[in-house]
């Protein structure tokens, strides 16, 4: 979790210099020489007393590769915080508290003390090669830091692309051929248009009124009215009824997925996914809520990170499909209560402390521009309501999509993501519960846990005692780690095939090196955990 950046000091400060543009941290200027402790510092690393600038004066320079960027930061700040402030993504699920051991970087030039956490994370050869945990490295002298590429394009479900779905969109278009005004017919432009749509009680927004005079006359009064529910949001020249699109967004804690839908045919046009850019603040909702409680600037940064994520995904699906942003009139967002609160700029603190109270369970309709989306000026955003602090709109959307709220049969709906939600229906009522899932398996306490990306073990084939099992990864990727489902399955396969689980469920190794048998040799010198 990044520490708050101090406000800029006056230029006359004795030990400070004017802050150039390259020294702002996400738009927040940094005081020259401000002492900023590294986040947590659980490994006990201390600044080198002989390092220049450690007395609080001057700055140190951090050069990050392979991104090829250089930033000057106050001495004492952690490498993880410095990278996060400047938009350089370093993998982490704990938000820089030194517990997940995911923020692995390599110090290419300069010295960084080895902490006890580093020794538990890296082999001796890796330590000698400069590998460290970024949240424990304090920048007390100039450093060249190599940051491993972060997988920002996780696997997304794309089976819906090309398959039509039944829609009843709030957006509709009406093609109209209006009579021309004359001295005997001096109705206003709006009245002339509303009289032609006599089955709806429409109310215009300002954008539609601004465009109406010019569009009507340039199009010879042959226009298309764009309507969302009962609001007239635009008037377009000619017949554009075939051009209406909507954007569906699954705002997950870890992964965000956007699908562009043709609202005229019900056909998905494009889908894209990426990691939620709030990731540097922690891998779960509690860590991100804690960030807002400990740092008054964190809420704004989390909101900005969510907006950037949505904007990038929208740009991807629009580019892939060739659809103009101005033709997207409606957005639906499904996310858990914390993600929605952070997106809207609502204080999430009550969600993180007992008795876990939401500010509201039904969110207002907002314009797309309010959540960082540059679409049609009148595009509305519908946010799915939540059932509780930890059963949010994403689950409500899932229940509606599966139709279990209308099915009289007993049905079970399970959503295993960063959080796991389960909904049971007996045909008359719905009962829901939730528990953490992702961080527990994807790195919160498991060294080889990872997100669903290339190299993640997702299937384990059970064998016999001589050949206990084989790990299966997507494509021909080399095994790098295990996803949430893969870790328990791997342990179970290993344990039961060798008949070695003890009474507590732990699995003991039967091989000399304690490694997990996979289809290929692991590229890392570290051995797989077996318990």
Structure description:
With 531 residues, the chain is an alpha+beta fold. It is 21% helix and 24% strand. It has helices at residues 79-85, 116-121, 124-128, 189-195, 206-218, 285-294, 298-321, 337-344, 349-352, 393-402, 438-441, 486-498, and strands spanning 24-25, 28-29, 60-65, 69-73, 104-109, 131-133, 143-146, 171-177, 203-204, 222-228, 231-237, 245-251, 255-262, 267-275, 328-335, 366-367, 380-383, 411-416, 419-425, 430-436, 456-457, 459-464, 467-472, 481-482. The model is unreliable at 1-56, 466-471 and 509-531 (pLDDT under 50).
Helix content, binned percent: 10-25%
- The rough form would be described as globular
Tell me the fraction of residues in β-strands, as a range. 15-25%
Terminal CA distance reads 29 Å
Q: What is the radius of gyration computed over CA atoms, rounded to a whole number of angstroms? A: 27 Å
Strands ordered across the widest β-sheet:
14-13-12-15-17-16
Structural class: alpha+beta
Main pleated-sheet profile: 6 strands, mixed
Spans of at least 5 consecutive residues whose pLDDT stays below 50 are 1-56, 466-471, 509-531
How many helices? The count is 12
Arithmetic mean pLDDT: 75
> What is the number of beta strands?
24
SSE diagram, text form:
Elements: E1 24-25, E2 28-29, E3 60-65, E4 69-73, H1 79-85, E5 104-109, H2 116-121, H3 124-128, E6 131-133, E7 143-146, E8 171-177, H4 189-195, E9 203-204, H5 206-218, E10 222-228, E11 231-237, E12 245-251, E13 255-262, E14 267-275, H6 285-294, H7 298-321, E15 328-335, H8 337-344, H9 349-352, E16 366-367, E17 380-383, H10 393-402, E18 411-416, E19 419-425, E20 430-436, H11 438-441, E21 456-457, E22 459-464, E23 467-472, E24 481-482, H12 486-498
Parallel strand pairs: 3-7, 9-11, 12-15, 15-17, 21-24
Antiparallel strand pairs: 1-2, 3-4, 5-6, 5-7, 8-10, 10-11, 12-13, 13-14, 16-17, 18-19, 19-20, 22-23
Helix pairs in contact: 7-8
